[in-house]
Structure formats: structure tokens, C-alpha cells
Amino acid sequence: VLFFPKNAKTLFFVGATFGPPTNCWLAPLWLPPGPPYRRQDRRLVSSFASALTYVNLKCSLSETSYGSGALMVRTLERRLAPPRAKRRDVSTPVEFGGDPVVWAAWLYYEERMTQEEVAERLGVSRATVVNVLQEARDRGIVTIAVSPKHLQSVRISHALSELYALENCVIVPDDGGRRPDFERIGQAGAQVLAEILEDHDVLGVAWGRTVLALSEALPEARRPGISVVQIAGSAIGTAEFSPELCTSNIAHRIGARCINLHAPGIVSRPEIKTLFMREPELVRQFEIIRSCTKILFGVGGFENAGTVLSSGYMTPQTVKPYVERGGIAVVAGRVLDSRGKAVLGSLDDQMIGLTLRELIKIPERICVAGGLDKVDAIEGVLRGGYATLLVTDELTAEALCARARLEAGQTPRRGRRTA
User: Is 0.85 topped by the overall pTM?
Assistant: First the structure.
């Protein structure tokens, strides 16, 4: 391409190949000696070269995407774009009172434009739009607030933590029953566990539907310094009961060391338990179990659909003596009453696993449980102080708060229906 700036004696040659971006070339090839080139000449040549390069790149990128070429196109588009107006020069529609701040706020918040689109509409830079939107907030033109619907869960979380002396509480908002509680709580618990796990932690894991859901939803990571330990013996039952599955799932998801407890959950006679507990391998495993820095557990009840009975871990006959003594909840195979006191029976002498007395000594105790059918059981766990962190659903949390306030003589706050 031969190009002669007007009234100039300088010849410029600009060339470009229409091929892949790697073959693009565009430059003044010969500048003969002579007087200094005028600034407008150089600007004109630069604009012409930019336009030709832009066309070349757009053609080349129409079929193939190149990161560096795409970046060059965006850069050239900005170069070829008309100059941005100053904020004081923006012509604002009359309905916005001549105030560009109000106009920009309307475009961004009401018409859902991006900042780049607002900048294009106003004819200013994106940086100017950022400053204008901040000014809109400072002047009170725009106010940003968290939805009361979402704040409700935060308020309940704080109230529940205070009423039951929890260090932390995570509430899963109600979804109208679209998904099972244990799935939603397990998913939320997985996010919480991923955030609080620390290198060199020893994490004890119990069993249950919610714990299993958590183990399957845990984000993948690489944490080889963490040990994941099974705290209760195994049994032939459903997947929901399987403590070894919950333990191995978590260890696999985070790339941690897995330590399964190679013993049955319940043996036939107390003397057999005594023999098991003397085995050197089990002695070493229980030393690791008792050294847990964190423990994860669910809460079971004695309802027919509960994991304790449906898994076959206990039968109605073996459960009956515990229920008669006031047992309402099961944590890691151990039974407790509504006040959180351990309820002992003949099965305790046959169980191989962590006891409630040992569990409560672990520094961080994460309870994942919910559902209105488990309010009694969860309340017993909280009153016993077995949990330092609770992950539950909104309706269960409201019911727990109402009960605690009623017992304390406080007027329950208005909310949704409670159990």
C-alpha cells in the first residue's frame, strides 16, 4: 500500500499478509532523509496502520482464536475508538435531571448493563464509571442491603450459638422441600469442613446419611498431612451406616491418609470385646482415634426410618431398653437422653468405638444433622455439649431456638411453624 500524507514529500509503504496472526506484519518500511516529519503525518500513518492491522487480525481470528491476537484486537479497538468524553461533557437525558451520576446508576442497577456498556453509552472510560457508581452510593442515590430472607439465617445462627453455647453454627436456608435435608446439610457441611481443616489435623469420622452426603460433596484437594480416622467399628448393613465408606470417601477427596478401624461395631459378647481391645493393632488405632483434633458426626434417632434401625446396627429389641431409660439420640453408636446424658445398656459392653466421654474431649466437634423429626435428638446432643459447630437446616434451627427460649422463659420470636 503506497501512502502519501497530504503536502508531504515522505513516502510510506505499509504491508500486511492476510494469514494467521503470526504472519501479520505492518510497518513503515522506508523513511527517506529529509526534514522532521510533522506530528499530524505520524498520527495519520499510525491510525492507518492500526486500521489495517485490525482488519487483518479480525479476518484471521474469524476461524481460529489466538489469545495474543485477541488481545491485540481489543487493544486496537480501543485505539480506533472515538476519544472518550470528559465527565463534564456528558449529555444526560432530561429525565435524569442532567445528572450523569443518576443516569449511570440507572443503567447499571436498573437496566443491568455492565460497566463497560455504561461507559460506552455515556462515552466515558470504564474507570470513570467505577468512580461515578461509587459516588452514587456515597450520595445515597443507590443503597445496597442484604435481603431479609438471607439475613434471617444469620440471625438464627447467632441466636442458636448463644442459646446452646456453640462456637459456630451454619444454617441452610429452607428450600420448600425440593431436596432432602440430609443432602443440603451434607453439601453445606462439606464446604465448612473444607474451610476449617488444617494441615496435620486428625479428623475422626462417624457415620450416617448426612455424613455420607458430606463425604460425597467435599471439594477435591491435596492435603497429605491430614489423617482421616474411623471412630466406630464396622457392620454389614446399608451404605448409610458404613463408617468405613464415609472415612475413605473423605480421605480420597482431600488426598489424606485414611485409617479404618478393622473391627466389628458390635461383637456378640463382652469378653470378645475385651480380647479385641487387647490386640496391639487396635491399641495403636485407638491411640490415633483419641488424638483426634476434629470429629465429624451425625445424629440418629429411634424412628423407624432412622439409620440406626434401618441399617441393622440395632434392632427394636436391643433398642427397647435404651428407650425405656430415656434414650432419644444416637451419636457414633452411643445413646443419650434429652439432657445430653449418656444412656448405658448391655450393648455398650459389646461396642467397639469411641465413647461419649472420649468424644467430648476432642477440641472441635462438628455435628451435621437436621430435619424436624430429629429436633429432640439434636437438642439432646446440644444440651450435652457434644457439638462445638452445628450445620443444620433453617426449620430445625428455628424449632431448637423456640424450645430453648421457652425453657428459659423468653418469648419465642415470630417465625415459621416449629415442631
Answer: no
